[in-house]
Design a protein that fits this description.
The two termini are 30 Å apart. Helix content is 72%, strand content 0%. The protein has 281 residues and is mainly alpha-helical. The protein is built from eleven helices and no strands. α1 crosses α6, α3 runs antiparallel to α4 and α4 runs parallel beside α7. It has one domain.
Length: 281
């Protein structure tokens, strides 16, 4: 009987370019597995559900409806918006829910598949791809709601809509990269998984998601320092026919996002074998 021989080398012998190439190889070779896992999860998500895919945008619709009701009754008076307020708040809350999903995507995928991580040897990049597939599936459903409302309120498009998709992708990539970077820590310390939704809930009210940025006062200064302000504002603008207002910031943001996403990929690749060993012990 011939025994398999394995040679283990110190991680210090790996160069950064080599680790990055292994990351790309991991994503490519594990994509089929990610698709199969995504099919399994999506079927399980809507199985034995009367309302089906309605649950994909039900929380967004409920949250937006509350703000629309508060505004109509005068309980909360928001400043004038360039587009009808119901559309304004639905776009804002939908985009924000997508951003929260992006942050939690990789953490949720790893936590949900702990049983196979410790039993099967596969590229852990499959779990990130799994989260991305599910994320974009839910995104398409939510965008259907926005498009329907745009037709109802007869909001016309312009050439600025061509910027919507690349801006949305780079924004999602930024938040997904943060989530991937935090994943190893979140597996070890569950506090991170609990604190992210809380932080995002607070940050939503400090971002022009359900109301415009004020023209003066402390909140105007705070929102000006909040990068999410520029992202939400220009995503909403490009989708509803208005021009980009913060082009310079978005260029810098896009460049930094690409660099950070590469760094997050490397951190995930290097740390996951260690995390897997800790989970197995």
């Amino acid at each position: 009987m011939i025994l398999e021989k394995r040679v283990y080398k110190s991680s210090g012998s790996y160069s950064l370019p080599k680790i990055f190439l292994e990351c790309l190889k991991g994503y490519k070779e594990s994509f089929y597995l990610a698709k199969q896992l995504a099919k399994r999860d999506l079927r399980a998500q809507y199985r034995q559900s009367i309302l089906g895919i309605f649950w994909a945008f039900a929380p967004v619709l409920l949250s937006a409806s509350i703000w629309i009701f508060l505004n109509l009754t005068g309980t909360v008076k928001v400043s004038e918006t360039k587009i009808p307020y119901p559309l304004f708040v639905v776009i804002g809350t939908t985009l924000w829910s997508v951003f929260v999903e992006c942050l939690l995507m990789s953490i949720s995928s790893v936590n949900a598949n702990k049983s196979i991580i410790t039993k099967i040897n596969f590229h852990k990049e499959a779990l990130v791809s799994l989260g991305i597939i599910k994320l974009f599936f839910n995104l398409l459903i939510k965008m259907g709601l926005i498009i329907a409302l745009m037709l109802v309120f007869q909001v016309s498009l312009s050439l600025s809509v061509l910027w919507f998709v690349p801006l949305l992708v780079i924004s999602m990539l930024a938040l997904m990269s943060i989530g991937v970077f935090l994943t190893p820590l979140a597996i070890l310390y569950h506090d991170i998984t609990r604190v992210i939704p809380v932080i995002m809930q607070v940050l939503m009210y400090l971002t022009p998601v359900v109301y415009n940025s004020p023209k003066e006062g402390f909140m105007k200064t705070f929102m000006a320092l909040n990068p999410m302000t520029y992202i939400i504002t220009d995503l909403r603008n490009t989708l509803t026919g208005y021009p980009i207002e913060h082009g310079g910031f978005l260029l810098i943001f896009g460049f930094c996002t690409i660099l950070f996403s590469l760094f997050a990929m490397v951190v995930y690749r290097v740390s996951m074998p260690i995390i897997t060993e800790r989970m197995s012990s």
